[in-house]
Specification:
The protein is α/β, with parallel strands linked by helices and 223 residues long. The chain contains 7 helices and 9 strands, in the order ααβαβαββββαβαβαβ. A hairpin with a 3-residue loop joins β4 and β5.
């Protein structure tokens, strides 16, 4: 969605996408990435996610990007952290010893911003974007990431004839279309989760699946 949409959602506190604890799929599957302690994990469109705090508790550093000032300042306030704030041309940078959040537009990131990144965690980015923007997002992400990066990607899948996003439905086939030329793709799990989300049942869904992928970037050159 356009950034004004998300700025409005945060301003009006329409943030049903925010989870009250660390994501269970993250906790279960993160060890499959075999990272070293103090490696940096990139969390795009991070909001005020508690997944950031969980990653830090596992001795990783986190670099996030988020367009909403409300979301960024809420994260640090709710976690009782006092960041150093540096206002730059492209981003306002909120930083502590282990956490850096760039307040600004994801599409303004460049290779130098992510040079220290060793993995990506995407639970809420790809599914937040309509189809056309998903292609733009993946293209930009792969262009700015270092090679051999691993990505833990979580998507949801349902019939968009029954419900419109966000979160948008991102199928296994679409992930393959978006990433297969550039990454090795492993589908770790595909789970029927509708009974865990009664609000989506009330919105008309008859099926809802969670797909958890481990992607390994092999090249980032677009033709």
């Amino acid at each position: 969605m356009e950034k004004d949409y998300w700025l409005r959602r945060w301003k009006q506190q329409e943030i049903g996408f925010h989870q009250s604890k660390a994501n269970s799929y993250l906790c279960e599957h993160w060890e499959k990435l075999y990272l070293d302690q103090d490696d940096t994990v990139f969390v795009p469109l991070c909001g005020k996610s508690l997944d950031i705090s969980w990653l830090c508790s596992q001795n990783y550093k986190v670099l996030g990007v988020e367009v909403s000032t409300i979301a960024v300042e809420s994260f640090f306030k709710e976690n009782k952290l006092i960041p150093n704030i540096n206002c730059c041309e492209r981003f306002d940078r909120y930083e502590t010893d282990r956490i850096s959040i760039f307040r600004g537009d994801f599409f303004n990131l460049n290779k130098q911003d992510l040079v220290k990144v060793r993995a990506v965690y995407d639970r809420a980015s790809l599914v937040a974007l309509p189809q056309k923007m998903r292609y733009m997002y993946v293209r930009h992400l792969l262009e700015i990431l270092p090679l051999n990066i691993q990505i833990l990607l979580i998507t949801c899948e349902y019939s968009q004839l029954e419900m419109q996003g966000p979160p948008f439905s991102v199928s296994v086939n679409e992930v393959e279309d978006l990433f297969s030329r550039h990454s090795n793709i492993c589908l770790l799990e595909r789970l029927d989760v509708l009974n865990q989300y009664p609000k989506f049942y009330k919105r008309g869904l008859s099926k809802l699946h969670a797909n958890i992928f481990l992607l390994t970037l092999k090249n980032n050159q677009y033709e």
